[in-house]
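In response to reviewer comment 3 from the previous cycle, which asked for concrete evidence that the modeling workflow produces usable outputs, we include below a single protein chain processed end to end. The sequence was submitted unchanged, and the resulting structure tokens are shown without manual editing.
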Amino acid sequence: MDFHKVTKRFMMGESVQSPSVDSYLQSLKEALGGLRPSTQSDSRKIELAQEHLREVRRHVRRLQERVNILEEKLTILEEEKGK
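The workflow returned the following structure tokens.
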């Protein structure tokens, strides 16, 4: 193990992984849930934002499933090419 490279990556911020989409969505959900609207209009806006967030979560899930399927297909093609 090259500690010099590991230290350099750490210092440059390369070793830190960015948060996942799920983390961002969870954070938004918690932020919206913590809001206390003062008017009926604000309440409707928060409800609409929460509904949009649910839709985004569904789309992200579908996209992740597609990515997984495509990665599996790519792996199979690479294995076939290597034979």
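The CA atoms of residues 28 and 53 lie 8 Å apart. We consider this sufficient to address the reviewer's concern, and the full set will be provided in the supplementary archive.
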